[in-house]
TrEMBL record:
<feature type="domain" description="MOFRL-associated">
    <location>
        <begin position="8"/>
        <end position="164"/>
    </location>
</feature>
<dbReference type="GO" id="GO:0008887">
    <property type="term" value="F:glycerate kinase activity"/>
</dbReference>
<keyword id="KW-0808">Transferase</keyword>
<dbReference type="GO" id="GO:0005524">
    <property type="term" value="F:ATP binding"/>
</dbReference>
<keyword id="KW-0418">Kinase</keyword>
<dbReference type="GO" id="GO:0005737">
    <property type="term" value="C:cytoplasm"/>
</dbReference>
<dbReference type="InterPro" id="IPR037035">
    <property type="entry name" value="GK-like_C_sf"/>
</dbReference>
<dbReference type="InterPro" id="IPR038614">
    <property type="entry name" value="GK_N_sf"/>
</dbReference>
<keyword id="KW-0067">ATP-binding</keyword>
<comment type="similarity">
    <text>Belongs to the glycerate kinase type-2 family.</text>
</comment>
<protein>
    <recommendedName>
        <fullName>Glycerate kinase</fullName>
        <ecNumber>2.7.1.31</ecNumber>
    </recommendedName>
</protein>
<dbReference type="InterPro" id="IPR025286">
    <property type="entry name" value="MOFRL_assoc_dom"/>
</dbReference>
<dbReference type="Pfam" id="PF13660">
    <property type="entry name" value="DUF4147"/>
</dbReference>
<dbReference type="InterPro" id="IPR039760">
    <property type="entry name" value="MOFRL_protein"/>
</dbReference>
<keyword id="KW-0547">Nucleotide-binding</keyword>
Amino acid sequence: MQEMLLKPHSRIQVIEGAKHNLPDREALRAARAICELAEGLTADDLLLVLISGGGSALLPAPKPPVLLEEKEKVTKLLASRGATIQELNTIRKALSLLKGGGLAQAAYPAQVLSLILSDVIGDPVDFIASGPTVASSHSTQDCFEILAKYNLLSSLPKSVETVLHSSSSDSVRSKDYSHVYNVIIGSNSLALEEAKHQAEALGYLTLILSAAVCGEVNRVAKLYGLLIQFVCLSMAGPGVDSLIDKRFRGVGHSSGYTGFPVKVNASNMIRRHRTPPASGLQFCL
């Protein structure tokens, strides 16, 4: 592992911030350093941007005169009233210098290449990390509608009102993004397809149930357990083994839930041989 650590006097600068996925002073310092670097580029430069989930907290650069604490107050109020991640990021982009395409604009006229790991269902690039290199698809009017929806128009800091009103005459949509290339190099869909490919190479029948599952993890896990039971019963054919209680132990979730109880055929993973036996299909979920 030592060879992976930065050497003394490295040209690479690392600023660690946003502990617990919350913007903080170190993340703000990093955002300012990134902005300064981008603004110093020329047409002969190439800016390589690596983007993944958590970028919204890692690039907290509120538009003046908005303070970081004021921006966080607005987003926390929205979250407490049930705003979706899409609604939260719409507001964040409107109040940020770097989100919603701001980083790409700061780097102009340099070429910008963004390699993106998506953590958002459907891979909308303007929502992944709040889209620092993607033009925002929302207007200031959208922001006011979201704030009105959650009865927050009268609770806004004065600085936030000032920025939103001034942004209405400076739409990001009209800006040039021809110097920007956004490429999704990893996503849920890509991971599922590769897992399917690898499983089939090992001789398993596979089925991707969905690449867009969302909801409370306990309920979704129970649904998947029922689906596994149904598939086992419907595909095993004659001679099915006695059903037994099993507990699958899966990868961890953010909620800490790591498994779900289901009743399945005695073999958790049934491998399909090159010549399937007469007793029925063998498969892998």
